[in-house]
Batch of 2 targets.
Target 1
Amino acid sequence: MPLLETPFARLDLIRQPEQSNEPLQAFDAADEYLLNHLAQLQPAAQARVLVLNDSFGALAASLIGNVQVTSSGDSFLAFQGLEKNLLRNGHAFDAVPKVPAHQPFAGPFDQVLIRVPKTLALLEEQLIRLQGQLAPGAQVVAAAMIKHLPRAAGDLLERYIGPVQASLAVKKARLLVATAEPKPPAVSPYPTRYQMDAPAIELLNHANVFCREGLDIGTRAFLAHLPTNLGTARVADLGCGNGVLAIASALQNPEAHYTLVDESFMAVQSANENWRAALGDREVIVRAGDGLAEQAPQSLDVVLCNPPFHQQQVVGDFLAWRMFQQAREALVVGGALYIVGNRHLSYHSKLARLFRGVEQVAATPKFVILKARK
């Protein structure tokens, strides 16, 4: 894999989660452009720099020792990547302070470097949270590969930060440079809420939650076919999002024990608040993590999963396949993984390579619900 070389550092970086023969690198031209732009400003060693949505730590790991850097984002895997890349390049794993996206910033910051996230609602929430956190004369610079840079990103920077200047394209990347100016206080439109009929609950959704404006059609198909009569089973909602699958299941299985896991901090925050609203103080574990990587082997009876088919801008079934492997490891013999997926993804054949029995529970024109037994 090529090294990331900038005026700040020369780094050997890896992606998360790791896979053998990784076809993609852990940085891109937008990371290089951001770092080269900051280097031209010649920041002082005491300058406070906030990095937002650093994919795998390329930005923060480059800046350590050059400025006072803080990293914030909504991805557990990105933070894990930062820690591993710090160690890989001779730093302590905790050398960069990390602020999960649902927690407030502690400014003032002299510079803010932003990788434009796939979900613009997350960018909007982050820009609103920068209010009162910028030092006088602070610059906020957002970067993306041009094919992933919507016009709305510049509109958001102008609305919440100040005048925006778009850079020339370099290696198919572009910067949006915003100069902070006084703005009237903005009220965040997040979290959003929507009502469900079956079960009759209201779901709260923080800015980076998938389908925060309404239930996605895959989950809707899944809800009608969740397993019942689970007794005291130990159940995990893997990639829980706002927690709707676990909550609906828990309402039908009052004695079952639930663990909800997602790699998005905002999803975990949403799931925790939704669980409390629907189920009060009923015992539950809700945590951010790398799927079931930290789950003890053979400690679950049932896993529910609506697997993702992308990581940031990268589309593929690598994450889903990894989640299926994690589920198999965590399930007891005889335990079952229930999933919903698009028909064309052929999850049935993938599951058949890991589990002793795979059956179709139900199907719609677009989705299949499958049960895989260990």
Target 2
Amino acid sequence: MNWLKSTLASVAGTQEPIYGPEAFRSVARQTEETPYTELARDDLRWIAHQYTNVETQVFYVMGDDGTLAMAQIIYSNIAGIHTTAQFTSKIFNLAGDAPHNWHSDPLSNFMFDESMHSFGADNLAVQLSEDGESYSIKSAVNEDSLVNLTFKRTSPGFVVGKDGTSYYGTDAQNPWGSMSHAFWPRCAVEGTITTQEKTYDLTGRGMFIHALQGMKPHHAAARWNFINLQTPTYSAIMMEFTTPPSYGSTVVNVGCIVKDGEIIYAGSTNSAAHTETIQDQESDWPEPKQIKCVWEGKSKNGDEVRAELDAALGKRLDRIDVMAEVPGFIKTIAGSVAGTRPYIFQYAPQEKLTLKLKVGDTEVTEEGSMFSEATFIS
């Protein structure tokens, strides 16, 4: 049992002591002086820490024809001794009458370019352009998902605060963990994903996130909410996580309201609430059915900004058991020893949702499409 616990700690991890909220420094503290920082090309480098961490780049697409898709690189390091990389792609079946076209494939011979801006592997290249304005994603890793996409940002990219990072640890000068997110909230997308059945034209709108969890993921966060709302004029993005009790169950919420060429608001004074839930029998988590999101702060010129989304989530798009491929006995012990039971609930309501936005004395409402996730870990 002791051997199993130590092995499990390397992969899933055992429960941490209660350090308290004072062992966690939220990125929200940075926003008191610097609400957000616009991204330059050099801010988009891969970090590739040499200790336990998970680093991802995620590209979300909302096609003009209604197609919803995503592509993701997952680069992970376990205890500084084992590094893996995975490429995941997903085309959602919005009708719900067939499985999603989902693939997650291990990568071979993966590497970064010399400047750490681009990532490559056998049959895969994800490259940041020289001007720092666009990404190209090309993958033939899986013959049922041939990816050829270009993401060009149409609004500034940003991190909340100075560096977009929250820090974990009892010594503020030497944190033992971190969590960070960098966003391109509004992008123009061109290209295709080709499956064995058809070629999907993904011309449309997209968003991009570069995220780093610089510690065991379930030690960093117990729950997540993610909102990606795209309207013809605006993009409303929200990423919220709650730390485990080890760090005081602290809520961190970063988000923005942008339009082409302009960040209207970005900061950490936002909220997300599941206003209606049902108990999901398979996962034993409270599955959200209705969500209310509020973005609140000031624009660069000092105007008060408030945006609100109050929406029924509709039929669940997918429920992902993150540990589905973990052997059953390990999964059971992971849940009992570490309190870890990770599930992701995904939604994309078929009806248009309304964003209510007030900037200073000007009020507007606009309908758009949303993709959202609610993740329960521990």
